[in-house]
Amino acid sequence: xxxxxxxxxxxxxxxxxxxxxxxxxxxxxxxxxxxxxxxxxxxxxxxxxxxxxxxxxxxxxxxxxxxxxxxxxxxxxxxxxxxxxxxxxxxxxxxxxxxxxxxxxxxxxxxxxxxxxxxxxxxxxxxxxxxxxxxxxxxxxxxxxxxxxxxxx
Length: 153
Prior knowledge:
Helix content: 25-40%
Strand order of the largest sheet: 3-4-2-1-5
Largest sheet: 5 strands, mixed
Order of helices and strands: HHEEHEEHE
Distance between the termini: 34 Å
Number of domains: 1
Mean pLDDT: 84
Low-confidence stretches: none
């Protein structure tokens, strides 16, 4: 288990929804859903979805260097939220949380969750991925996380 996983797990206790709501508000967390495409035999195919979580430093925080303490705090909160929204039971879909990237991403810190088939990664999206996406985005809404899209962001 990585350090980020251990830190994120601290937020996922019995009062997780309350604590995660506070973190979502503190870091102004937003989310966006993108299709995940792959080329199969020369044809572009949607094989899953990507949920992009994004948060910003607290007001008044300077951003002096890559991987600063404030970035790590935002990333820890995003990872805890990601771990909380991912379905816990085994399904035909799998979920992949991107590793921590310490580069500066002004003005926000991001984390991506891939939703794809557990086997046959190049298979087209089916009802399982759609169901998982719907459940995960509903849990984000329960935390008060705002949805954004490229047209309005």
